[in-house]
Amino acid sequence: MNSNPSPSNSSRFEGCTLTGALSVLTEVRDAVCIIHGPSGCAHHNFSLLHATLLSNDRLEVPRLLSTRLTENDIIFGGEEALEKTIGQALSLSPTPASIFVLSTCIVETIGDDTAAVCAKARGVPVLAVPTAGFLGGVFETGIKNALSTVASLARPMTEKTLSANLVGEKNLEYAVDENAAEIARLLARLGIGVNLRFVRRIGTGDIGRLGSAAVNILREPALRPVGEDFKRRFGTPYVDSFPAGLGGTCRFLEEVGRICGIDATAAIEEERTYQAAMLGKFADIAGSRVHFELPHPMLEGDPGAETVCAECAAALDLTVDPGGVEIPLPYPAPVGTAGLGRMLHRWRILIRGERRG
Questions:
Q1: Is the pTM higher than 0.85?
Q2: What CA–CA distance (Å, rounded) separates 319 from 324?
């Protein structure tokens, strides 16, 4: 396997907090995001988000504004420019239901009190999101900070419903909606519905439901600090990741059932039967020789992907051999049984192609 980047250089490969936060905040449909910094920061992120939306067949334009700080603002402070841009946001039609202000590297350097500017009463919540560009951490830091900031618009609920929140979906991921559908399918086996996709295509008014779910399901273990934060705020327990692998999917059902006080035995047996039927569709590649590699030497793999691949290879009686068909390790690991089916479909294409060659 390829080695990971050294710790001293890892942040260069992990992106900017600003981009991570925007991947969350631009999914609040009736909000406007203000990037407090030079116009180049807004242009770069707008281009990235717009291209990603188009690649996922979403003909949408992110609602972003920039304070467009100039050299003069950088020398004397940019708080006045921020105040002006918030006014511009409030004058838009339709009027935003919430405004998120994200700081950049330069704002962190000059010391603008972004939080104080945002705290002024305006009739619409204006929330400062701690990002600070590359000075504030990495892409994942931006996601965590954005989730926690949006959650401040919700309040604890005295009554819980038998439902789950999906927390921290990877909005820039190609299969994000397919993964959510798979989680909804698994939850339905337990009689549990989806309360809120936090944050995915919701309105500001929807955020108030955050505390009413019986369980939060985090997209990945890296979001455990968010899970703990929400547990403290709303008293909601959490599962620390979407399920991966055949056994992992069944354990997911067991854990969610335990948290919600539901006997998951029947649901697990039903899922195992469903998995067997799915694997049966790929019986034609049984006995093939394969080996697993990262798709690119600069990429850091998902730690669970190799385990998932080995499990599927064993279930299909594939031989893992250095001379076998090269199979790229998926990143991230496929979600649930449906994700495995899509992954195995790609394997079959590669194996058949090798046979024809």
A1: yes
A2: 8
CA pseudo-torsion sign 320, 311, 238, 168: positive
Spatial CB neighbours of 228, under 8 Å, sequence gap ≥ 6 = none
- What element of type H or E holds 229? helix 224-234
CB atoms within 10 A of CB 64: 19
Which pLDDT score is estimated for 43? 66
Question: What are 357's two structure tokens?
Answer: 């060659």
Tell me the two tokens of residue 160: 């819980």
Query: Three-state DSSP class for 40?
Result: helix
Question: Could you give phi then psi for residue 118, rounded to 5 degrees?
Answer: -70, -25
- What is the mean pLDDT of each successive set of 10 residues along the chain, which is 357 residues long? 38 71 94 90 69 67 85 85 96 95 88 93 93 81 96 93 97 91 98 98 97 97 97 97 97 98 98 98 95 71 86 96 92 95 96 79
Strand locations in the chain (E): 31-36, 64-66, 98-103, 126-129, 161-167, 193-198, 213-218, 238-239, 289-293, 319-320, 325-328
Number of neighbouring beta carbons within 10 Å of residue 319: 12
**Cα distance between residue 323 and residue 114, in whole Å:** 57
| Sheet containing strand 64-66, strands side by side | 64-66, 31-36, 98-103, 126-129
The string of DSSP letters for 138-197 reads: -HHHHHHHHHHHHHTT----SS-EEEEEEES--TTSTTHHHHHHHHHHHHHHTT-EEEEE
| CA distance linking residue 236 with residue 212, whole number of Å | 8
Smallest CA-to-CA distance from 226 within 214, 209, 210, 245 is with 210
Q: Could you tell me which residues come within 8 angstroms of residue 357 by beta carbon, excluding any fewer than 6 positions away?
A: none
User: Which residue has tokens 């994200």?
Assistant: 102
Report how far residue 267's alpha carbon sits from residue 357's, in angstroms, rounded to the nearest whole number.
43
Q: What would the two tokens of residue 173 be?
A: 């991921």
Distance CA 74, CA 106 (A): 8
What three-state secondary structure class fits 46? helix
Q: Which residues have CB under 8 Å from 284's CB, separation 6+?
A: 348
3-state SS, 210-222, equals HHHEEEEEECCHH
